[in-house]
Automatic annotation (TrEMBL), chain A:
Keywords: Ubl conjugation pathway. Residues 131-174 form the SKP1 component dimerisation domain. Involved in ubiquitination and subsequent proteasomal degradation of target proteins. Together with CUL1, RBX1 and a F-box protein, it forms a SCF E3 ubiquitin ligase complex. The functional specificity of this complex depends on the type of F-box protein. In the SCF complex, it serves as an adapter that links the F-box protein to CUL1. It comes from Castanea mollissima. This is SKP1-like protein. InterPro entries: SKP1, SKP1-like, SKP1-like_dim_sf, SKP1/BTB/POZ_sf, Skp1_comp_dimer, Skp1_comp_POZ.
TrEMBL record, chain B:
This is F-box domain-containing protein. Gene3D superfamilies: 1.20.1280.50. It comes from Castanea mollissima. Signal peptide: none annotated. Residues 130-171 form the F-box domain. The chain crosses the membrane at residues 12-33. The lineage of its organism: Eukaryota, Viridiplantae, Streptophyta, Embryophyta, Tracheophyta.
Length: 182, 501
């Protein structure tokens, strides 16, 4: 948790931070939102330490490993996350319920294949809550599925030597019964 | 007169059609490509001939509407009948093809340029190959062991990540008691309510103790003890029980040892420390199991090839053992906590560090367990009804104490928060339930009350399996229907967590 999460309303902080993605799109976000991205926070803190004199920061933070598409989704998620947190500051249970509800709705609008992109972006930005949420979502997407399905889901090909995979199958024969093939 | 003129015109038109078709046939069979422009021109001229030459003659007896209809039908029939030819013409039209090709290429370039940036990040890793730390996060959120196995089969990277995980937060399986005349053993997975069958001839006819490390300890009627890895089916023989049997000579084989506890050896992380609580007065012995019999294990250490007995001058009654922050603790009668130094000189010794939470004896106390997390040490007290006349028993409730190291005393806790605790024959342990699908704040228990088995011919027990909900509003026991029809005197359901390695 960053210090910023304590600020009651994300919109109250007027400072804006500009993020530039790998495909050269520029996002202007609230400081509270940007500070949830630990990578951005780190960069921002370092910058501020380097030039203490510049009061109003007009820093443009480059994000060479993040594209505009996942970043836009992450920003939306982050805003909502802060909002729910602010609305239920004194009730943890209530907050969890609201968050769960929002996350369920959120997943309806996300293609399963987009999740990989989002995970990588969240991982690079070091946005812990989002990473946890997306990993949970992926884990439940590949729940009770076959190895082939998981490979297809991540666009991977088997790189085992011939025979290696058969050995694994033989060893864990019990686990290959009754999985969903699709 | 006029009528004959109009018919001749139509005839002429048909002649043109026939000619055109023949021309088409000839050109196509010769392999020439007719450009669409010339084809369109021919078609246009035909239509022109029909509309501007014929109506002048047809005006008088054919209404212009009817005539227009005739032309329309003839042209459309022509177009329809010639549609394959038209398609062929379009496809063979080089100018058109080059046009399409250009557009297609431009489309492809656009596509790949947008996806290439997403496929390749600046450090040139392919998008679909997730970094190991992310794979780690994902597989640790898989609920069932079966899903974990599937993940381990995805690719080399996934496999190495899965193999690097020793103990992951995962609900154990309930290894059900033996069924006669088969070497198949049934396992019940709490997570997906599934039953799995494993062929395990190694455990047939033996009493077993479970652990969260993927291993079970077995003891057979021949007094031989083994460690068995459930998935790898590797068996390691434990030292002969001679020293233990000398101290408990009258006990039957399945009643000799009450509890085997499997710990990672705090002084040598690659070895296991197997602790046995045995005999009529619950004494303590331990043995070491080294997995690398190489240079590291050359030192002859206590318990290496023998069961080393812990001397017990105060006649403590040992109940359970746990390793917390590299220190071994033992829970004794009424909750007395002692510290065990297995490598102390001249011999292994125990030292009392705190009394039990209450000095008075509670006759409903059935069992005591010691459970560690990374931050806390818990004492779990199991209460129940005991009916010596009918030789019957049943669990009714639990209470939980947390050890306060600063005050050196037990403090009762009424909430286990996000923990799920597992107790029974074998290790007592808990798992955090924050990342997995599991009931939290509860204690899962199996039947480990063997006192009636001392009486000859009594095969009662194994039925006391269930979940105790710690939540203040509930505090109830939900029975799990296992071990009910248990006819075997030595085999009962136990908790064991399957692991890959």
């Amino acid at each position: 948790m960053s210090n910023q999460s304590e600020s009651p309303n994300p919109t109250s902080s007027s400072n804006k931070i500009t993020l530039k993605t790998s495909d050269n799109e520029v996002f202007e976000v609230e400081e509270a939102v940007a500070m949830k991205f630990c990578t951005v926070k780190q960069y921002f803190d370092d910058e501020n330490n380097n030039n203490v004199t510049s009061g109003t920061s007009t820093t443009l933070i480059p994000l060479p490993n993040v594209e505009s598409h996942p970043l836009a989704i992450l920003i939306t998620y982050c805003k909502k996350h802060l909002e729910i947190k602010a609305n239920n500051a004194d009730n943890k249970k209530e907050m969890e319920i609201d968050m769960e509800h929002y996350e369920r709705e959120f997943l309806k609008n996300v293609m399963p294949q987009e999740l990989t992109e989002l995970i990588l972006a969240a991982n690079y930005l070091n946005f812990k809550e989002a990473l946890d949420f997306f990993c949970r979502a992926v884990a439940s997407a590949i729940q009770n599925k076959s190895v082939e399905y998981v490979r297809k889901f991540f666009g991977l090909e088997s790189d085992f030597k011939p025979g290696e995979e058969e050995k694994l199958r033989e060893e864990f024969a019990w686990s290959f019964e009754g999985v969903d093939e699709d | 007169m006029e009528r004959s003129v109009s018919t001749t015109t139509i005839l002429n038109v048909f002649k043109v059609f026939v000619f055109f078709q023949v021309a088409l046939f000839v050109t196509l069979t010769r392999g020439y490509v007719i450009s669409t422009s010339s084809f369109r021109l021919t078609l246009f001229v035909t239509v022109l001939v029909l509309t501007f030459l014929s109506p002048a003659h047809a005006e008088k007896d054919l209404s212009s509407f009817e005539f227009f209809l005739t032309i329309l039908t003839s042209t459309s029939s022509f177009v329809i009948s010639e549609s394959p030819v038209i398609v062929i013409l379009i496809l063979t039209d080089s100018s058109l093809i080059s046009n399409i090709q250009q557009r297609f290429e431009r489309f492809l370039v656009n596509r790949s340029s947008s996806s290439s940036t997403s496929l390749v990040t600046s450090n040139n890793t392919v998008l679909s190959e997730l970094p190991p730390d992310v794979i780690y996060e994902i597989v640790n959120r898989l609920h069932t062991f079966r899903d974990f196995i599937a993940a381990a089969g995805v690719s080399r990277t996934w496999r190495s990540v899965c193999l690097s995980i020793g103990r992951r937060p995962q609900l154990p399986w309930l290894m059900l008691s033996e069924t006669l005349s088969t070497d198949m053993r049934h396992f019940f997975s709490l997570c997906d309510n599934n039953r799995y069958q494993l062929q395990l001839s190694e455990v047939q006819g033996k009493r077993c103790w479970g652990s969260p490390h993927g291993w079970v300890v077995t003891l057979g009627p021949d007094y031989e003890t083994h460690l068995l890895h459930l998935m790898k089916r590797v068996q390691i023989a434990l030292p002969p029980l001679n020293t233990i049997r000398r101290l408990a000579a009258t006990e039957e084989w399945f009643h000799l040892v009450h509890k085997f506890i499997l710990l990672k050896d705090p002084s040598h992380k690659l070895s296991f420390l197997v602790i046995a609580i045995f005999g009529p007065v619950n004494r303590l012995a331990f043995a070491r199991v080294a997995f690398d019999r190489g240079e590291g294990a050359a030192l002859n250490r206590r318990g290496q090839d023998e069961w080393a007995i812990v001397t017990n001058p105060d006649n403590l009654i040992f109940n359970d053992v746990a390793c917390f922050k590299d220190q071994i603790y033992v829970l004794c009668d009424n909750g007395k906590l002692v510290c065990l130094e297995i490598d102390a000189l001249p011999e292994a010794k125990v030292q009392v560090i705190a009394p039990g939470p209450s000095e008075e004896e509670i006759d409903t106390l059935l069992k005591l367990y010691l459970v560690e997390t990374s931050e806390n040490l818990f004492g779990i007290f199991r209460y129940g009804d005991r009916n010596p006349l009918e030789l019957r028993h049943g669990t009714t409730s639990f209470s939980v104490y947390k050890f306060d190291f600063r005050a050196s005393a037990w403090k009762e806790v009424i909430d286990l928060e996000d923990l799920a605790v597992f107790v029974g024959d074998g290790n007592s342990w808990c798992i955090p339930t924050s990342t997995i699908l599991c009931r939290s704040n509860c204690i899962y228990f199996t039947d480990d009350n063997w006192e009636w088995q001392r009486y000859p011919g009594v095969a009662y027990g194994g039925h006391d399996v269930g979940v105790f909900n710690m939540a203040q509003t509930e505090r109830v026991i939900q029975r799990l229907p296992f071990g009910m029809n248990n006819p075997l005197f030595y085999s009962r359901p136990i908790w064991v967590t399957p692991t890959l390695r």
